[in-house]
Design brief:
Layout lengths: L2 H7 L2 H9 L4 H8 L3 H11 L11 H5 L5 H94 L3
Helix pairs in contact: 3-4
Length: 164
């Protein structure tokens, strides 16, 4: 019997209905055309490991808790979901911080542009004041040159007229 055919024929429901007929696992495995070990593997996957159907206990057996590996998976899933929720909150917090930082960057860029303009204005003002002061100094220098020339000429004239 091919593996595909076995997978189609073997089911938890068929197993349980055969078990209700009080057939042993050995006989049920034979009916499915599989080994008892393979049937045991299926039972483990269905959460029926160690399952036995006793008269008057049919409903109790059918409502058995899943096996420990299912409980472990359920627990892991719960942990992963909790972690996922925590990560979602962390992502939201990081998004908020990102928006906050982008606002700060925008503000700093604006401040930089404003300060750059202020520096340019101050430079321009200092350059104009420097030019004005230089014009005054050159005017004063020109006056001192004229005064020097006048004094030099007067001194020279005084020397010429003064007897030796």
């Amino acid at each position: 019997m091919s593996q595909a055919a076995v997978n189609v024929e073997v089911s938890k429901e068929k197993y349980l209905s055969l078990k209700e007929l009080e057939l042993s696992d050995y006989k049920i495995a034979s009916k499915f055309g599989i080994t008892p070990a393979k049937l045991s593997s299926y039972k483990k996957g269905w959460g029926l490991e160690g399952f036995s159907l006793k008269k008057g206990k049919k409903q109790e057996a059918l409502s058995q808790e899943p096996n420990s590996s299912f409980q472990e998976l359920k627990s892991k899933l719960s942990q992963i979901m909790d972690e996922n929720e925590s990560l979602k909150q962390e992502v939201e917090t990081l998004r908020s911080k990102k928006v906050e930082l982008l606002d700060q960057i925008s503000s700093l860029r604006s401040d930089k542009e404003s300060n750059t303009q202020k520096v340019a204005n101050v430079k321009q003002q200092l350059a104009e004041e420097y030019e004005e002061e230089m014009a005054k100094v050159e005017g004063e220098l020109q006056k001192y040159k004229e005064l020097y020339k006048t004094l030099a000429a007067a001194f020279a004239a005084h020397l010429v007229h003064e007897p030796q």
